[in-house]
Amino acid sequence: MDNKRYRIQFPKSECQNADQDEAFFYLLESKGQKKIKFHDYDVIFNIPGLYEQIFYDRLKCCSPKKVTEILNTSVAQTNENFTELRVLDVGAGNGLMGAELKKHGVSRLVGVDIIPEAKRATERDRPHIYDAYDTIDLCNLEEGEEDDLSSWSLNCLATVAALGFGDIPPKAFMVAFNIIQSEGWVAFNIKETFLDNSDDSGFSRMIRDLVFSKYMDLYHIERYRHRVSIEGEPLYYFAVAGRKNYDVPKDFYDKYFD
User: Fold this and answer.
1) What is the pTM of this model?
2) Pairwise CA distance, residues 50 & 47, whole Å
3) Is residue 27 in a domain?
4) What's the domain range around 125?
5) Nearest CA to 66 among 96, 25, 109?
6) pLDDT tens-digit profile of 208-242?
7) d(CA 85, CA 81)
8) How far apart are CA 196 and CA 125, in angstroms?
């Protein structure tokens, strides 16, 4: 992967009250500065190494490692092996979560992301991580796409740092949940407020109800520092791992978004 270092600047005074999905930085180039939002993934992924420099070097994101660790801990509570997992990595981006899973050893690894820039970045930076990587919209699957994913006999769903900011719609998460096999594993992270009853958004209520529902058994939940903000303040998330019992019926998640 290209190890080029970029000149970046965080505009602290302009971002003091910005939500995580509104934060931005400036990329300083010879022809001037370019304003890029944190969630402009199509732009960021097209610049080799920029995502890693922003989120991992500067903002100290540790979520792929943490979510993989709690998944490993959960599987270890059973008589199954981590190396038997056939993982669907949703919102796979440029492959950082996939690389962490691969490091621990999984049987199969299938990545999906809605933007083509993510797949291209993975092929460029981590070309041998995934057994397959598809650019698909889980909310609007085309004919054959669900069958193609199901043909991998996936028994684990993983998604990191993509829930709750519009990156992955709730319906997409539920579609992915239903694609993996019953008794398959589920591991994800989510902003700490989403598990607080004071957050009554449909998405938050759905996640809370799913985690404690008959459709999923909770194995591990842990509060941890996801990364730091532009101002250097810690941003806490929950890492969650559990086991799927049954497919979730459509009316379970539709009711949260009437």
Assistant:
1) 0.92
2) 6
3) yes
4) 63-257
5) 96
6) 889 889 999 999 999 999 999 888 899 999 999 99
7) 7
8) 37
